[in-house]
Amino acid sequence: MTPILIVAAGWIGLVVAARGLRGGAYAGFAGVITALLAVVWLGLFRDVRGAAAVVAWALLAANLIHYLALTRPALRPVWYRTLVSVPALWFSAASLLALPWAIAGWLGLPTLGWWLPYAACGFGLVQSLRNPREEFTLVLDRGDAGRLTRHRAPASDQAGLRVVQITDPHLGPFMSVARLRGVCERAVAAEPDLVLITGDLLTMESHGDVDAVAEALAPLASLPGRVFACYGNHDHEARDTVRDSLRRVGATLLVDEMATAETRLGTIEVVGADFVWRERGQHLERLFERIGLRGERPRLLMLHDPGAFQYVPDGAADLTLAGHTHGGHVGLLSFGLSWTSIGAIAKMPDHGLWSEGRNRLYVHRGTGHYGYPIRLGVPGEESVLRLVFGD
Known about the structure:
The protein has helices spanning 3-22, 24-45, 51-69, 78-97, 99-106, 116-128, 177-189, 210-217, 239-248, 280-291, 341-346, and strands spanning 133-140, 149-151, 161-166, 194-197, 227-229, 252-253, 257-263, 266-272, 299-302, 319-322, 352-356, 359-363, 382-389. The chain is α/β, with parallel strands linked by helices. It folds into two domains: 3-125, no CATH class; 129-389, 4-Layer Sandwich (Purple Acid Phosphatase, chain A, domain 2). The strands form two sheets. The protein has a seven-stranded mixed beta sheet, with no helix packed on it. It has a six-stranded mixed beta sheet with strand order 1-13-3-4-5-6, with helices on one face.
């Protein structure tokens, strides 16, 4: 049997099994991703021989196994993530970048440098498994800054309200329970005034596992009254799991609500906006009509999607904290430049500190990511923000 027939048979088998075991939507998702992988694989590796062929076939098989296993979502053990999930997702992401070389291969043209996207994604794989730790001071002066502008958040020893933001951990292949628990332990060790969780705790692998999510977040239980959360888009896929796990660790989930926290700097208002796909402007307008704009007390707004920041009424909060973009995911931040693919394509705040009018926004690069595509040139983030409130 030729490689084309073998790959085609494996792909058809996956799609049929996925449809039967989990339905058409998932079959379409898995089918599109693995079809792209198959096209690239056949363009680059069908004529490979020897040990390289064994590795190439094993990585293709790992992808089929990974997406087949997801017909029954569950958090997987370390050995499975090491041998199947992580290699599969690395190979799949790198193959997407290798599409131009694969097209050349299909056309019988030279494929010199075909290994470059795989090496680049190897670098991204390392970035995906460890977050740098940083501290920034954000001076929130409430002045009119004009149109939407990016700012640099400098390292500083200036005192302020200590806030740790956890966003987009995506408990799953790249974020084990132990790894997320370590993130939470370091958050507690930073002695924050507040911990704000701005959405997307889950992947499809952790949708139904309240115990695992609660175990990962357990260190935060030592900060009663200081942990607040809002929903992200992926949390809507398993809202009960997110709600119940947050309740177990004593975190306050805010769904279009406002609460207050007593800190060493006095009372702080914390607002949590729900995630919505449509009519974001109307949604935020209704929220702030109900709770009002910022008064004398400092106010923080948790808003998962930074694309909705433009709809926050002027002066509604001292600082909006968002995630969702994973910092831009693919970019040049590792080389000291601010460019990212998401910022270039969507023209939206993708990472760091922004201002528009009297509003300020901090977009966290993400505690983790969903797994596909891999991070590349945009490391994750574990930072402490020192917020200085002023006029």
